[in-house]
Write a structure and sequence with these properties.
With 171 residues, this protein is α/β, with parallel strands linked by helices. It is built from 6 helices and 7 strands, in the order βαββαβαβααβαβ. Strands 3-2-1-4-5-6-7 form a 7-stranded parallel sheet, sandwiched between helices. α2 crosses α3.
């Protein structure tokens, strides 16, 4: 039995959220032997009721900062013996990759899904946060096992603007 988790901060209305609901509902109905988890920061996400009852929902409790989330992600992955995690959205991707770096995951596959053209997103942030996120993306994204991009534009931006290894990036 494989144990696979998906992580998105909130399951409210949006494209990435809809994708996760659709994927989880389909794979949970097709696979009787695998176990699927959804990790969210808050338990008050709007669309949780649309998930199949076969999905185990785990909460990080996002009242705390990034270090707490990174530690909590580690605990959830270890406690539930999860062997693969799919992260969605830039901040969630960074949380999972930072957790991998700190806790040195070797037996857990990390797949990040990028929904945004990061260059445009980063350039829209005008603060010290811009610098920090930019450095984290540059340092951490190449540590994923695979990066799924929702479009060719997102894929090309990652490879050309962020120096991400093209062999790990798929569309």
């Amino acid at each position: 039995m494989k144990k696979i988790a998906f992580y998105i901060p909130l399951l409210n209305i949006g494209g990435a959220e809809r994708v996760i609901i659709d994927i989880l509902n389909q794979v949970s109905n097709k696979s009787s032997s695998d176990k699927f988890y959804l990790i969210v920061d808050k338990n008050k996400s709007q669309l949780i009721e649309q998930l199949s009852k076969k999905i185990n929902i785990l909460h990080l409790d996002s009242k705390h900062g990034i270090i707490y989330r990174v530690y909590k992600i580690h605990n959830i992955l270890q406690k539930n013996e999860i062997k693969m995690i799919f992260a969605h959205l830039t901040h969630a991707n960074l949380h999972v990759l930072l957790s991998r770096l700190i806790f040195n995951y070797r037996d857990i596959k990390v797949v990040v899904t990028e929904h945004s053209i990061l260059t445009e997103y980063i350039n829209s942030i005008k603060s010290f946060k811009h610098f920090v996120i930019k450095q984290m993306i540059t340092f951490l994204y190449n540590r994923s096992d695979c990066i799924i991009c929702v479009s060719n534009s997102v894929k090309n931006d990652l490879i050309n603007s962020w120096n991400i290894n093209s062999e790990t990036v798929i569309r």
